[in-house]
Specification:
Order of helices and strands: EEHHEHEEHHHHHHH
Number of helices: 10
Distance between the termini: 68 Å
Largest sheet: 3 strands, antiparallel
Oligomer: single chain
Strand content: 5-15%
CATH topology of the domain at 12-90: GIY-YIG endonuclease
Number of strands: 5
Shape: elongated
CATH architecture of the domain at 12-90: 3-Layer(aba) Sandwich
Length: 270
């Protein structure tokens, strides 16, 4: 429960304000309970915030700062939750020194540079090439038991679809995606008989009734895109008006022998 019992040994949240700049900081404190200190006996006397820059300035010149405990709590979890929810509201405000409220953390340009320096030259995975021991393999198997065959519920699917709606990628992002996929060979290239009859039936059922995204739309493709498509399709044997070689015709006739047409004996078509 939230209270203002500052004379009792309890976890608390506090505010510190710099008199000269007007900048404020909101924090949480629970270590005072281990040292049997009340908020009044702790803040500004033994404790000077968790922010390293503010801590140095506050400990050297406490007179330049205004500070006070705001609320006390019965447990550490209650105090942390209150601080987290409060910081989410003020994290983007320039009046506050708070730059982190999980899961959102605002990195300064200096910290970004440090992170990039530490990442440069490192391999993508620290454990690359290191095999797992038998005990580790058994632990991994136990931890992953029950995950096989699990599916998302309809509610979770709806939430996922709603969260993705309206998201549009920038031109730079699309270019990067196309570059990353260049030279990749499809996993099913040159393979036949990959899907079973049951999976093919499921795929046909799923595709039935679907309306193409470009149906009835004109001017979807630009002039440049149309030129590129025409250049790519030039010389394609499956285009209309193109002459197919004798070998291709023989292969097609051989593959079609013995097949019964799907519309044999049917008079009306939907």
């Amino acid at each position: 429960m939230r209270s203002k019992e500052f004379n009792k040994v309890k976890p608390y949240v506090y505010i510190i304000k710099n008199k000269s700049t007007g900048l404020r900081y909101f924090g949480v404190r629970w270590r005072n309970t281990h040292k049997n200190r009340t908020p009044f006996d702790d803040l500004g006397k033994e404790y000077f915030s968790s922010n390293p820059k503010l801590k140095k300035a506050f400990s050297k010149n406490p007179k330049n700062f205004e500070y006070k405990p705001v609320y006390t709590f019965n447990s550490k979890k209650e105090a942390i939750l209150y601080e987290l929810n409060f910081n989410k509201k003020i994290i983007k405000s320039k009046k506050w020194l708070n730059t982190s409220a999980f899961p959102q953390i605002i990195h300064t340009p200096q910290t970004k540079k440090k992170i990039s320096k530490t990442k440069k030259g490192n391999s993508p995975a620290w454990n690359k090439g290191i095999p797992h021991t038998e005990t580790q393999k058994q632990k991994l198997k136990k931890n992953h038991k029950g995950f096989k065959g699990q599916k998302h519920s309809n509610k979770s699917k709806k939430k996922m679809s709603l969260s993705r709606k309206g998201i549009r990628f920038s031109k730079k992002h699309l270019k990067n995606l196309s570059k990353s996929h260049m030279g990749h060979i499809p996993w099913n290239k040159g393979k036949k008989g990959i899907y079973s009859k049951t999976t093919l039936k499921k795929m046909s059922k799923a595709s039935k009734g679907r309306v193409p995204w470009h149906k009835g739309k004109t001017g979807v493709y630009g002039k440049e895109q149309l030129k590129k498509l025409s250049e790519k399709m030039k010389g394609n044997t499956y285009r209309r008006g193109s002459t197919q070689s004798l070998e291709a015709r023989r292969k097609m006739s051989f593959s079609m022998k013995g097949r019964i047409p799907w519309n044999k004996g049917k008079k009306k078509f939907n």
